[in-house]
Amino acid sequence: MVRSRTTSITVLPNASAVNLIFYGTPGTGKTWQLQQLQQQYTEQLAQQNHDTFLTEKIRELSWREVICLVFLEEKRLLRVPEILNHPLMRCKVQLTNRKENISQTIWGTLMRHSALDSSTVKYNPDKRSSLALFDKDEAGLWFLLPSASDDIAHLAKLLKIIEHGAQAAEVIQRYSFVTFHQSYSYEDFVEGLRPVLDDDENGQIRYEIRRGIFVELCERARLDPAHPYALFIDEINRGNVSKIFGELISLIELDKRQGRTNSLEVVLPYSHSKFSVPPNVSIYASMNTADRSLSPIDIALRRRFQFVEMQPNYELLEQAVQGKPVNSDLAGLDLSQLLQSINARIELLIGRDYLLGHAFFCAVEGFADLQAVMQHKIIPLLQEYFFDDWQKIRLVLNDHRKPVDLQFIQLGNSEQQAIALFGEMPDVPLQTSYTINKAAFTQIQAYQLIC
């Protein structure tokens, strides 16, 4: 398991939220650190609060499914106001943050899913769903169709779980995880219009306003102020951070949170609803400092986050070597010293933002593993770091001071090659040629001589 020398961060109940970015070069345990923190936002409950338990079960259900649950629990004919005021429906309404037109939504869902041969429901047959679930009597009381039992069997099972209540083995995760990338957008993070294949509209595609991952998490936290929540962002600098956060860049500041002295709220552009960030939401992220293709984090975002540097952990590699069997085929090779030697040369050539992390060697159990790591991970990464400047790669691997047969990158004889190819020395500058010596990867001495 990869560990870091970075001070471990512990989340305490009702502790103040934090905005924190772990940054460093590849293989230093940034993502591992995020995974460890996730455990602090995961709870196995001896007895879960019923409201929280119900919220988790209802969260992903559609209006149609919740209406069916209400009928299954009541086992009788119902009017729309009775459906609206049922605890299951009130939970759904609270989750969607809707305040208007709820009755119309229930009416519309009931009618769209009514039987085509109904004599009491006056609704355009062309707009009815092929999934018939409801009908109503002459008095205007709605009921579930007996023929719908197969279609709602999964909801009947869910209702039994809800009625049974939270069990001791219930696990609740009070966090969300996302990896930023070039196509990740404000609409994914905050809110936006999303295409929806609506079974209530005969399979037609419609567009509706959907909350993004951060706003959704904030609403969960707002409904559960007694517990800390967290958003984990891997590779935060792979996305256009300013565009993704939008106006929320000010709201995430700790003193601008809901209920704080300088609290702020904004009106979201799609839903036009007011939004602020709850004080019990933390944001943790990882950032790769070695990727030249990424834009640097701008100053506005930097001042809103704490930054914790993750460095190569040579002590961990020393422990790994000590833990190897005496008869290991790595005996006599100090992986910690090997990595330190490589990193010392990299730092002199291009800087400390391009060091190799300890994770590259932590999983090495034998010489075969080391060969694979060096040939398929270290050498390709050095090519990226040095833009295929093979002379610098040779310096990093100490190849210029090794016997030729133990050099990972061998220097070619350009003059001999030119004569062989052209029959004479051409009167033009020649490029230096380099060859990857695969045989060297199978020689333990080639690795020992790096140090």
Question: How would you sum up this structure, described in words?
Answer:
- A hairpin with a 5-residue loop joins strand 3 (134-136) and strand 4.
- The protein has 451 residues and is of the alpha/beta class.
- The protein has 19 helices and 15 strands.
- It has three domains: 19-41 and 174-310, Rossmann fold (3-Layer(aba) Sandwich), CATH 3.40.50; 50-164, no CATH class; 314-448, no CATH class.
- The protein has helices at residues 30-40, 50-58, 63-74, 80-84, 87-96, 102-112, 153-164, 186-189, 213-223, 241-245, 248-251, 299-302, 314-322, 335-350, 359-362, 367-385, 390-396, 414-422, 444-448, and strands spanning 19-24, 42-44, 134-136, 142-144, 171-173, 175-179, 191-198, 204-211, 229-234, 266-267, 274-275, 281-288, 306-310, 409-411, 434-436.
- It has a five-stranded parallel beta sheet, with helices on both faces. It has a two-stranded antiparallel sheet with strand order 2-5. It has a two-stranded antiparallel ribbon with strand order 3-4.
- The two termini are 25 Å apart.
- It is elongated, with a radius of gyration of 31 Å.
